[in-house]
Amino acid sequence: MLRFLVSLLLGAILGLVIGLYLGWVQFPVQFVNSPMSALDPKYRDEYTVMIAQGFQADADAVGAIQRLRVLGVENVPEYVFQEAERYITNSRSPLEIQALIALSEGLGRTSPLFDQYRPVGVP
Amino acid sequence: MTMPTESTARPPRSSRYYRPRRPISWFALILGLIGGIAGGLYVAWVAAPVEEVDTAPWQLNSQGRADYTVAVMLAYSQDSDLNKAVTRLLELRIDGDPIQHVADTACNLARTGYVAEPGGDTAIRAMMTFYQLQGRTGCADQVMPAVPQASPTPNLLIAATPTLPPPPTKTNTPDGGTSTDGGVTPTPTVRVAPTVAPQQAFAIVRQERFCDADFPGIIEIYVQETGGAPLAGQRVRAKWNDGESVFVTGVKPGRGADYADFSMTPDISYTVEMPGLSDPSDVMISSGCFDATGAQTQSSYRVVFRPAF
Fold first, then answer.
1. Would you say A88 and A118 are in contact if contact means Cβ atoms under 8 Å apart?
2. Smallest Cα distance from A90 to chain B, Å
3. Distance CA B94, CA B90 (A)
4. What is the pLDDT of residues B232-249, one digit of tens each?
5. Of B300, B302, B276, nearest to B289 (Cα)?
6. For a tag on chain B, would you pick the N or C end, based on fewer CB atoms within 10 A?
């Protein structure tokens, strides 16, 4: 009987480890129907840049704020400003930086850091 | 002859009584394993699932997917990069045609109050432009009212240089400036012939972006007569942030007398013009793209100059 119980316990411990590995690592729960506020930071950045590019095209600051609110951001101008500074610090694509700068300044926030990224006027 | 008694009888050599006893019970071990895996999966999937920190666009709810689609279209309206737009749409893991998905999303948004929200109208029209250019249709085409056409501005108002009014005609006027009936003499209206706006000798009749791995990151320039005949030896200037380069058409072997090209550096903005003869082109930026064979390369541009009149 003791042999049976020891074997059962050993199997249960081994099975638990395997089960946790499968459930947490190999086949973790994949959520669907998630809100925009749960977006991965990488996609949040991409979304913000896309909205900034849209602002470059239509110059609609109110629309841009409305679109960024879905990220769950409380202070949209401050958020865009921080994004622009972070993109500059991380030497991201100049076009993306210019878009974020345009939106940040369109929302009333600027910085001396932005100066070097302003597009040069074409005669 | 005596028969062996029962007490001295031995079991056969293959009997389990001759095999050594195993330290574990395989039956119990497998039973425990099954129970353990079941318990582990319950804990991992139900009781304590992984925390959601890396949601991808395809995992968004329908509203989030629509918002993401709108953002992709707004970016497309700014950069006109079809490859990038489609790649971003594919992150939504759409079943079927991603461009038709845009048409369907525009249709849904146009039918809701989204169109009245700030920027809603612009967003839906950006989506319509995108899918219409790709030959798709959607109900937004009917739902959205047509864009009112701006009334044409008379050319008379856009004279490039101010025209001085002609000197007043020396006409005798009665003293006191009054007419015979005692009223004020109306000042005659001076009609000034408008100055014709200066015309450029050449205009850009075509400027398009293309993607070809054989010609990565270049600006192809063609200078032609009105009917398309090549014009050799024409000066063309490419400008970028902190420099410019002047070159002439017809010096590239095998590419025609009207041809010149210029190599672009990725992510730098360029314009081209015919110095003193044309206005500058729209800004061109070379970025990553995939050509018709699926090869990754840098986008290029084609600009055609022809006489303006």
1. no
2. 16
3. 6
4. 888 888 888 777 888 888
5. B300
6. N
